[in-house]
From TrEMBL:
It comes from Catenulispora pinistramenti. Signal peptide: none annotated. It holds the Pfam family DUF6542. Residues 12-122 form the DUF6542 domain. Keywords: Membrane, Transmembrane, Transmembrane helix. This is DUF6542 domain-containing protein. Residues 128-151 are annotated as: Disordered.
Length: 151
């Protein structure tokens, strides 16, 4: 994603992280299976895509954001799947069931974020990279190796 300003990249990452699971929740709800495979796949794909787009400094918010993305997507999908005129008791029971399913989906999404972030960290380093705080900045010309002393 060379050439993208860091703010634009952060915005695109946030959009992907939220829009794909929300769209999957809406599509699953319209299809009548609010927390089914369509939602689950959309949540995992959104988490993985956002992790791939994120900068190393931007990865920190993707893990804690997953519950805040998954729960509304799941509950919204289940509520959209409910037929019109459903009584409030059934709606409440289905919402609690959706929260239980959202917990499991969140765990899978968190695992996907961590696996993709780890793979990105391991395979994303090139030979001309100098270890640093972010670990991804190229070494400037004439730079001393890390830990080298002057003189």
């Amino acid at each position: 994603m060379a050439g993208l300003d860091e703010r634009w990249r952060a915005g695109l990452t946030a959009l992907v992280a939220v829009a794909i699971p929300m769209a999957a929740g809406i599509a699953a709800g319209v299809n009548g299976n609010g927390d089914g495979p369509l939602l689950q796949g959309g949540v995992v794909v959104g988490a993985c895509a956002a992790t791939l787009l994120a900068t190393r400094r931007g990865l920190w918010w993707l893990v804690p954001a997953q519950p805040m993305i998954v729960v509304p997507s799941t509950v919204g999908g289940v509520l959209l799947a409910e037929p019109r005129g459903t009584n409030h008791t059934k709606l409440g029971t289905d919402s609690v069931t959706a929260l239980h399913h959202a917990f499991i989906i969140t765990l899978v999404a968190l695992g996907a974020v961590l696996v993709v972030a780890l793979a990105k960290a391991v395979f994303g380093r090139g030979g001309d990279r100098q270890p640093g705080l972010a670990g991804s900045e190229p070494a400037p010309d004439g730079a001393r190796p890390v830990g080298a002393h002057r003189g």
